[in-house]
Amino acid sequence: MASEDGGGLAAATTAADLDEYQRRLYEVVARHSRYPSEAKRLRLAGVTYLAFRLDRRGKVLESWVQRSSGSEMLDNAALAALDRAQPLPPIPPSLPARMDFVIEIDSSLLQVALLGANQRMQPSSALP
Q1: Contact (Cβ atoms closer than 8 angstroms) between residue 60 and residue 98
Q2: In tens digits, what is the pLDDT along the chain, a chain of 128 residues?
Q3: Bond prior to 87 in cis (omega within 30° of 0)
Q4: SS3 state at 58
């Protein structure tokens, strides 16, 4: 609900826009995430905290690993996902023209999704 001074509605709109935009960014980057086959062989898992700076058009100006998964291979895979996801959605007009974001790329979830996809792709005669 808006406050009497009128600022509450604008702040609520901006917060809602930010929440929605962050959700969209995560979805786009997650769609482009790949679990490296070598990581699968080595049974690597971890969470990479991927940080990046965007301009208004959604162009990545800079990216870095804010907190490592403990595996350079998984961290590099997270950075590669961000590269593949470009161009990212433009920043909404209600938000600042340049913004920094941090998203979590959980490779254990990617591994589970990969295993699930492989199970679905088995011939029906291989299933119990």
Answers
A1: no
A2: 333 444 555 666 688 999 999 999 999 999 999 989 999 899 999 999 999 999 999 999 999 999 999 999 999 999 999 999 999 999 999 999 999 999 999 987 665 544 444 433 333 333 33
A3: yes
A4: coil
Count CA atoms closer than 13 A to 110's CA, side-chain side: 25
Residue 46 Cα distances to 92, 109, 114, angstroms: 32, 9, 15
Residues 50, 82 contacting (CB under 8 angstroms): yes
C-alpha distances (whole Å) from 127 to each of 40, 111, 116, 117, 123 are 22, 21, 13, 14, 7
Q: Which residue's entry shows tokens 């930010």?
A: 18
Cβ 39 vs Cβ 106: under 8 Å: no
- 6: its two tokens: 């009128």
